[in-house]
Design goal:
Blueprint lengths: L6 E4 L7 H16 L4 E4 L6 H9 L3 E3 L10 E4 L6 H9 L3 E4 L3 H15 L3 E5 L5 H7 L6 E4 L2 H6 L8 E5 L5 H14 L13 H15 L4 E5 L5 H12 L3 E5 L7 H4 L4 E6 L5 H13 L3 E4 L20
Parallel strand pairs: 1-11, 1-12, 2-3, 2-4, 4-5, 6-7, 6-8, 9-10, 9-11
Bound molecules: iron/sulfur cluster.
Length: about 325
């Protein structure tokens, strides 16, 4: 049992961002309003609970558009896809509903713009992440993925005076800063979007973790799936700030040993994790004697993206 003063702090913002909200609502509306079957390409967002819930409601998740019968409806995930996928969908006469987050679409547009100028586009991110696969596909012959500091030091480009930089939206700003610095030193004429590509939701959730640790949290629990990039980065940010930090899929992932001797637990969730999972963890810790504090409102960021027109109420 924790000491009397031990507490769990629900930090905010946490959980669903505007892009995830939009993607999930898109599938829900398609299931409600369109004739079945409704296919979804890839995980609509990187969260097992969300995928299982939508599957139970009738969504059929497929790895590629090639698995979808000709003429059927397919929803593209929030992470975005390469133009080749759109071409494949057109060839199969699929009815496409594109749930790509508008902030990911913005990065796609940047890559197209830089590629049109003949630039080599350095894309900072994780090679096998869905978002990076989709973004790279905008200009496969010109995009080079840079994963870390070492690759930033060694990457070779055709023309050092014509190089551009974009990033995956869900990275840690702290990690990316060093990579960008190295690339700037190597390519002084480096073109890049003025405000960067890391999205507001990623940044705000990482900042909240840092503030919680600065305020005394000695354990950070981040609810999110293993393949959720922004959730993993939140764990890293918590550790870098000096706390013990773990990624948990749900309440069953909490190891009781982590709680031993902890005075202040910061509980949060990645941008694709539903609040119901956070509440279950909070209840578990409350049951173990932690005082519950913090925000009942997961996010008040005020960002809303319009739904794709195919599922918009007229
Ligand atoms: S994490 Fe950012 S880029 Fe990804 S879906 Fe959410 S708002 Fe969009």
């Amino acid at each position: 049992m924790p000491e009397i003063s031990s507490r769990i702090d629900l930090i905010a913002p946490r959980g669903y961002c505007a892009g995830v909200d939009r993607a999930i609502e898109t599938v829900e509306r398609a299931l409600d309003e369109l004739s079945p079957p409704v296919y979804v390409r890839g995980e609509i967002v990187h969260n097992r609970h969300v995928v299982d819930t939508l599957t139970a409601r009738g969504a059929i998740f497929v790895a590629t558009e090639q698995e979808v019968p000709e003429g059927a409806t397919i929803i593209l995930s929030a992470h975005g896809v390469a133009p080749e996928v759109h071409a494949n969908c057109a060839a199969r006469r699929l009815r496409v509903i594109d749930a790509t987050c508008p902030l990911v679409s913005k990065v796609h547009a940047e890559v197209r713009r830089y590629a049109t100028r003949g630039a080599t586009v350095l894309l900072v991110g994780h090679t096998d992440h869905d978002e990076v696969i989709g973004t790279s596909g905008e200009a496969p012959d010109q995009v080079i993925v840079v994963e870390d500091v070492e690759q930033a030091r060694t990457v070779e480009v055709t023309d050092p005076n014509n190089v551009a930089l974009t990033t995956q939206t869900t990275l840690s700003l702290d990690d990316t800063t060093e990579i960008v610095q190295i690339l700037h030193e190597r390519f002084p004429a480096l073109l890049m979007p003025p405000n960067g590509d890391i999205c507001y939701a990623t940044q705000n959730r990482q900042d909240a973790v840092k503030s919680a640790v600065a305020a005394g949290a000695d354990l950070v629990l981040v609810v999110g799936s293993q393949n959720s990039s922004n959730s993993n980065r939140m764990v890293e940010v918590g550790r870098a700030a000096g706390a013990e930090a773990y990624l948990i899929e749900n309440v069953d992932s909490v190891d009781p040993d982590w709680l031993t001797g902890k005075r202040r637990v910061a509980l949060t969730a990645g941008a694709s994790a539903p609040e119901v999972l956070v509440r279950e963890v909070a209840d578990l810790l409350a049951g173990r004697g932690f005082d519950r504090t913090g925000s009942d409102t997961p996010s008040a960021e005020g960002v809303i993206f319009a739904l794709p027109r195919e599922v918009r109420v007229p």
